[in-house]
Amino acid sequence: MTHGLRIAREALSIDSVSRSEVLRYLGYQGQPLSPELDRRIDDTVARCIAIAQPRMSLASYALREIGEQGVALESCTLRLTGHDIVEHLADACEVVLFATTLGVGIDRELRRLSLTDTLEQVIFDAAATALVERAADAAEAQARAYAAAAGAFTSWRFSPGYGDLPLDVQGDFLAALDATRQLGITLTPSSLMVPTKSVTALVGIHPTVQPGLVSSCSICSLSDFCTIRQTGRTCRG
Ligand code: SF4
Description:
Blueprint (H helix, E strand, L loop, with lengths): L7 E4 L7 H7 L9 H17 L3 E13 L2 E4 L5 E3 L1 H6 L5 E8 L2 H13 L1 H32 L3 E2 L15 H7 L2 H5 L2 E2 L5 E2 L3 E9 L31
Antiparallel strand pairs: 1-2, 2-3, 2-5, 3-4, 5-9, 6-9, 7-8
Bound molecules: iron/sulfur cluster.
The site of iron/sulfur cluster (SF4) has 12 residues, from α5.
């Protein structure tokens, strides 16, 4: 039995990102990197981390109704539509929603670089994408700890725009997290988030271990933020 997570905002302290993730976002496929480019990537990642102000907001909601057309939540207007999310949450009793953002300073820097140094802009953009995903890892780790404390399990994280869950749920998703007030996230008319380096996602809270969880803590992307292992358990029980 969970106790419910009320909307909580938190500043995140993240001092590193995975270099291989940054290279992946740069489209790197094993070609040799010059020492100069190598150093430039490291310097840009460090500058991105210095400018970013990663924050997150998360909250849990009980499921009110789950049917062919979608999932309705208690006490909020968010309705998650599509077959994929219905399948994802099939035996869930609750969801944890979360949003993370790096703040407006990152967008300001990307705009400046677009006018002054396009190579640096591309590297900075990849670094920021890796960093906001790491912020989402930190939020997901909290959701897993919340589930584990109740003897429950989370599913893998699912974002608006995945599968057939439409992007136009973003407005109600952000409202359910009070994310405009808590984090300063707003939407463009086409439902894209501003600041651009922002992520919204949810995990289901389930009574049984869910497929898709990593089999070992040693390869888990959440491990730096995990508080479950301190209890002598893992998120798999
Ligand atoms: S580090 Fe281990 S216990 Fe923690 S979230 Fe990852 S797999 Fe689960």
